[in-house]
Each structure stands twice: as structure tokens, then as C-alpha cells.
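Hey, resending since the last one bounced:
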Amino acid sequence: MINRIRLLFVAFSAVAVLGAVASATASAESPLFLPERTEAYTGKGGAGTLAVLPGGITKEIGPKELETTGTFEAGARLGAFHLDFKKATAGGGLLTCTGLGEASGVVLMLGTWHLVYDKLGTGGELGVAFLFLAEATHLECGSKLFVMTGQVLCLLSPVETLTTSFTVKCEGSKGDPKETVYWNEKGEEVKLGESGLLDAENEGTGEMTSLNTEAKLETKSTFLLMG
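The C-alpha cells again:
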């Protein structure tokens, strides 16, 4: 009788473990963090830095403000973004940096974003991020011409919460981005590597670049990124 009970316990334990594994796999492959409806957003942020390896004050562009607009598309993981860096300077504030065709000190960056996993798990352990895919961004700082292009991974919060306000946070220092790994909707790990943000000076070879900034995104009505 005791042996039979032990066998039943082992059998039930095995079923429970298999169920947990199946649930985690399904969660990793499920369409999480999709907007419940189409909703436009606007955003503003304070001072930030765009820094190129190996870093140092001569390789940093420091916008004092940023403004962004975009749209969360219903049931979609991607959209377009429009980002204005304002009062941008380099060389410790001695040089004004300006994008092509923009007002003095304004740098326009355009591109698309994708919603991706920042980490896997279930429930509160799931994280989500914006993966920004920037088009070629041209700017002049004094006599130097820079062209930036590539991908930037920035954390997004909150999710699964009714709100009109979201925070997007991009971190990095001296050209070294903090977030470089994400997971796609199939649960596959992806490393940015050479697809990360690169900055080429005077048509030279692109060097790894970090973006360090934080912005608050606002929607007109209560909105949900749902899991």
C-alpha cells in the first residue's frame, strides 16, 4: 500500500512538472504585450547622452531635451517613431550639433520600434522593452559629420496596468549600451552585437554607440499593454 502511494505521488509530481514546463513554453511563445487598441502617444524627456566608444567628452553628444511621438497599433508589436533631440551639443557644450535640414541644435531620428521580451518567465517576471530600429541619422557638430544607424534596446513600463503614462528608459555609458539581449515572441534569445547603434564620423567606420536617456510617454485615454 505504501509503495502504491509512493508511485502515485511520483506520477502526480511528474505530471505537475510537465505541466509547468508546457505552461512556461506556451507563455514564452504567446503574443504578450499587445496593445488592446490603437492609441497615439507623445513623450518628453530631459537631458541625455549619445556616446561613442571608447567614450570621453569629445565623443559625447548631449541633448538637453527630447520630444517623441508615435502610435501603439492595436494587436501589433511594431510601429513608427519620431524623435527630436533638442539643444544638442558636443565637446563639453562647445559645439552645437544639428541634423540635416533641422533648426540649430535639433537632431531628428526616425525609425520603427518593436515590442520584445526583456526577460522570460511568467506573470510579474515577464519584462518588455522597446527595440528601436533607427534609420540613418545625419548630424553636424562643428566641422564633423556623424551618421548614426542601428538598434537600441530600451526598457518599457508598466505593462498589464491601466494607465495613461508609460516610461521608456535607455541606458548606457561611454558607448557601451546596458541592454543588449532580448527574446522574441518565440522565446529565442537575440543578441544585438553589430546590429546595435553605430556612429560613423566623417564617413568612417561605425563605432558602437550608447544612448542614455529616459522619457515619459503619454496617451490621451487610459490604455493597456496587455499580457
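DSSP finds one helix and 19 strands in the chain.

Sorry for the duplicate.
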